[in-house]
Every structure is written in C-alpha cells, then in structure tokens.
Amino acid sequence: MNIKPQKRSLLRRIGRWLAWLGLLIVGLLIGGWAFQRWASQRDRQQFLPAEQQIMLNGHAMRLICMGSGSPTIVLESGLGDGADVWGLVQPALAEQYRVCAYDRVGMGWSAAVANKADRASIAQTLHELLSQANVSAPYVLVGHSAGGLYVREYAQRYPEQVIGLVLVDSSHEQQRQRQPQLAEDPFAIMRQSMQACDALAPFGIIRLTKLFEQSQSTYAKLPQPAQASIAASQYQTSTCSAMDAALAAITQDLNQAQAPQSLKDLPLVVLTRGIADSTMPAEFEQTWDSLQQELAQLSSNSQHHIAETSGHYIHLDQPALVIEAVEWVISQQAK
C-alpha cells in the first residue's frame, strides 16, 4: 500500500511526539520516585528521633514513653492512627504515671511488616515491643476504636500483666454481622482507595496532590507538633499498603461468630460517644450503643459512661474523661 509523502511525514511526526511524550512521562515518574524517597527520608529524620526507635525483629518500631512509676499505662490507637493521636491524654497522665504510646507496624513511623495486621499479631507484637523496650508490667491498657479489640486480645493472652482496661468508643468483634447492612461496604470502598493510593504513592503523586489534607481536621485539637507528625506520616510510601492490610484484617476481626470473652472481675471502663456518626443510619447507632453495653458487661467490675459532647474521638473531644477512667481503674487496685 502506497502512503502519500504528506501522510508519511505526519505519521513520523506523530511517532516522534508519542516517543517524546513517553520519555516525558517516564522522566516525571522517575523524578516523582526520587522526590518521594527524599521527602520520606527527610520526614523520618524530622519526626522519628532515635530515642523513640525500638528495633524489633529487624524492624524499627516507634514507642513514646513519658513519666515514671507503676502501673504503666499503654495507649492503643484506632485503625490508621498512631501514638500522636494521644497528645492530649498522654502528657496529662504522665504527671503521675508511666505512659507509653506506639505506632503499630506500618502505621505512623513504624516500619511495615507483612502479615502483622490481625488482632492476634498486634497483641503479640505489642508484648514483644514492651519487653524489648524494658517497659515493665503491670499495665493498664487503653484502646480506642479497633484498639479496644486489640487491648482485650492482649488481656486474654497475657492476663498476669494487665490490671485493667479502658475502652474508648471501642469496636466489637460481632459488629459487622449485627449492624444493619449498608448500601455499600465502607471497608471495601476504603480498600479500593488504599490500593489505588498504594500504586501512586511510590511516585510522589499522593504527596504532591496532598490527598490526605482534608483528614487533618480530625486532629485539629492536638498540639501543632502532633498534627505535623500525623500529616507527614500519612505520605510515607508504605502507608497506603499498610492501611489496606489493616482494613483486610479488621474486616475479619469484626465479623466473628464467637461472642467476646469474659473479663471476669478485671476493672473496666467503657466510654461511648454521645454524638452520633452523621454518616451512618440511625439503626447503625442503635446497634452500636447495644454493643457498647455488652462490652461493659464483660466484667463484673465495670463502669459505662456516655461522652455527651464527643464524637468517635473521645480522647480529643473530652480527654478528661479518658484520664478519669484510667484513674478509676488504678484506684481499684487499692481495694
């Protein structure tokens, strides 16, 4: 087939343009990759001082301990959060007690580790971390949201180390099967977002577009250094992958047929949000309240309080309630 010279010339020009476009895209991706590596390392140096790093099985974990004395209070964050979220509670409690908060694997400034996102692995990792850092028992464990599930798992595995629990608007292992079905599974939607994020993060696209900027309003009540640390940690290359793994694990952990195990007479305080989640139907909140009551009934020595002016983050909206709950748990040891 004969191609006219004009068309042949046009095709050659288009080919050259496409080649240059391809080179430009490759160059941008390489540049974005280099920028992401540099910025991630810069942020780690700024927000992860050496004294907060504990090497555990060859991986760096972030652990922040303040204060002194016994018992030790250990703070366990909710899904996607790290130690910084306790910035209104930890310093206040540290005036009287030893208080430790940490970043789970892949969250905040702790290194990502495969197959460590389920509640059993989280409890085991925390146990190993506290031992490696010479943080001595007895412990009062405080868990927010999914963290409430994790601290109960810890108490079941290591009962001799735990003298009490505080559950802060805690998750319940049967909540997914007992809550009304939503039109769309929020965890599935979040996983799709995190998987897309994971594909883009190595090339700096998530960082450059400031994808997580809107989520920072959740942490507006925290001190500025904590807000800055949270914001920077969200743009680490492994964050989206770790969050996807956490979502996959929590989907299973919150869909259990077996009811929660009894805590016998272990001192327990359950704090429940007073302000409903406006994104969920009323039936969802009614079931949530019932599940919270069930959690309070796990121990024969428990209290259940409604945080009237708080949403899900009670430790940010009403930190004094969390502090009072910890103090009540500790007071039970004198009886």
What's this model, at a glance?
The chain is α/β, with parallel strands linked by helices and 335 residues long. 46% of the residues lie in helices and 14% in strands.
Structural features:
eight-stranded mixed beta sheet, globular, 8 strands, 335 residues, single chain, hydrolase, 2 domains, hydrolase activity, alpha/beta, AB_hydrolase_1, Rossmann fold, 14% strand, AB_hydrolase_fold
Topology at a glance:
Elements: H1 5-47, E1 53-56, E2 59-66, E3 72-76, H2 90-93, E4 98-102, H3 119-132, E5 139-144, H4 146-157, E6 162-168, H5 175-178, H6 186-200, H7 205-209, H8 224-233, H9 239-253, E7 268-273, H10 282-296, E8 302-307, H11 314-317, H12 319-331
Helix pairs in contact: 3-4, 6-9
Model description:
The chain is α/β, with parallel strands linked by helices. The protein has two domains: 47 residues; 284 residues, 3-Layer(aba) Sandwich (Rossmann fold), CATH 3.40.50. An eight-stranded mixed β-sheet has the order 1-2-4-3-5-6-7-8, sandwiched between helices. It is globular and about 95 Å long. InterPro entries: AB_hydrolase_1, AB_hydrolase_fold, AB_hydrolase_sf. One of its GO terms (molecular function) is hydrolase activity.
Any idea what the shape is?
Answer: globular
Beta-sheet strand percentage? 5-15%
Q: Provide the domain count.
A: 2
CATH superfamily of the largest domain: Alpha/Beta hydrolase fold, catalytic domain
CATH architecture heading of the largest domain: 3-Layer(aba) Sandwich
Structural class: alpha/beta
What is the third-level CATH name, the topology of the largest domain? Rossmann fold
Low-confidence stretches: none
